[in-house]
Specification:
By secondary structure, this protein is an all-alpha fold. The chain has one domain: Orthogonal Bundle (Farnesyl Diphosphate Synthase), CATH 1.10.600.10. It is 71% helix and 1% strand. Strands 1-2 form a two-stranded antiparallel sheet. Helix 3 packs antiparallel against helix 4. The model has no long low-confidence stretch (mean pLDDT 93).
Length: 346
């Protein structure tokens, strides 16, 4: 097993143990209606108890380790990061109408939930997470509290801005898609939420000066685009039971604005382009329809061009980050873990 795999497993285990204790302290009380309380409790923790890799929480912990941060506070914030991901995913699945999450039925599609209950569960999980963050905030040095709080608010706000931008763009005809718009989505959503936020948590408990934290936050944020291109690639290529955790090519069903869709606009020709427009964003597209679209991407070199861009953006981000990370064992491991999100099994 590689050092990266061992670290991810160790970090995930620590966060899961923390979450297990937290779960026991959040059981709702609804008087004699214990069955309803038990249902709410189970739904609140459903996503958290599914299988997850813990990449973002590991970014928190390994960044803190690389920069000499307080590891107790880092574990608090790594757990906050995991819960933030879970309540955001509940809402994200509902907004995207995604049927699967982590290889199981999405909360909004579950018989015991539905759209209205999913919204409420996400709100409850967010409330639990806010309390957890408040407790974590009180445990860091007083000079770190306000900058950490402001940073978190900024990142979550930018992430919601990115989500709005993406949903707004999907309302436009697919012919309007552009690479600039896609890269804006990648930066404002994935760059902030997947890299800058968790790495920033680790940096903010490391006692670095604020300007040094900012420099590294922005450098780590650049990993967002190559990470998301990799994720979108897996969405189109990963078959059932592959470990990807979502339905095959559901980006096509959603009409998601990705680098693959942007390149298809310029590379596909004639009847193939017309057929692509019939399939992409069609909620009734069958698995065979989606596979046909994927085959057209292959035929016209969409995958080759997109992944060439992905590699260029990844190497650029890596080179920038490498110059800002200590030349220590923990620093080298941080780079490897940052890289891991851009180099998942295809």
């Amino acid at each position: 097993m590689s050092a990266v795999s061992e670290t991810l497993q160790r970090n995930s285990k620590a966060v899961r143990e923390y979450l297990s204790d937290l779960k026991e302290n959040t059981r709702p009380t609804l008087g004699p209606f214990t069955d309803v309380a038990d249902e709410l409790h189970a739904l609140t923790w459903d996503y958290t108890e599914r299988e997850w890799k813990g990449l973002r929480s590991s970014f928190v912990l390994q960044t803190a380790a690389a920069f000499g941060g307080n590891m107790d506070s880092a574990l608090d914030l790594a757990t906050v990061m995991q819960l933030e991901q879970d309540w955001i995913l509940i809402e994200d699945d509902l907004e995207d109408k995604s049927p699967l999450r982590r290889d199981k039925t999405a909360l909004w599609k579950m018989d015991s939930a539905g759209e209205d209950i999913a919204i409420n569960v996400a709100a409850r999980l967010r409330t639990i997470n806010e309390k957890l963050f408040g407790n974590a905030l009180q445990k860091v040095h007083e000079n770190q509290r306000r900058p950490l709080e402001l940073f978190r608010n900024e990142m979550l706000d930018q992430t919601t801005q990115g989500q709005h931008f993406e949903m707004h763009m999907r309302k436009l005809p697919l012919s309007k898609i552009s690479l600039d718009a896609v890269l804006m989505i990648y930066d404002r959503k994935t760059g902030t939420y997947t890299y800058e936020l968790p790495c920033g948590y680790g940096l903010h408990v490391s006692y670095l000066p604020e300007h040094e934290i900012l420099k590294r936050r922005l450098a780590f944020r650049d990993y967002g685009a190559p990470f998301q291109i990799e994720d979108d690639y897996l969405n189109l290529r990963a078959e059932a039971k592959s470990g990807y955790g979502k339905e095959f090519a559901d980006d096509i069903l959603e009409g998601k604005w990705t680098i693959f869709a942007a390149l298809a606009k310029s590379l596909l020709k004639g009847k193939d382009l017309e057929r692509h427009h019939q399939i992409y964003g069609n909620r009734n597209a069958t698995t065979d329809d989606r596979r046909e679209d994927v085959e057209m991407f292959e035929k016209y070199g969409v995958f080759d061009q997109a992944m060439a861009i992905q590699r260029a953006l990844w190497y650029q981000a890596r080179n920038k980050a490498y110059g800002l990370v200590p030349r220590t064992k923990e620093g080298e491991l941080l780079i490897e873990i940052l890289d891991a999100g851009c180099n998942r099994t295809k």
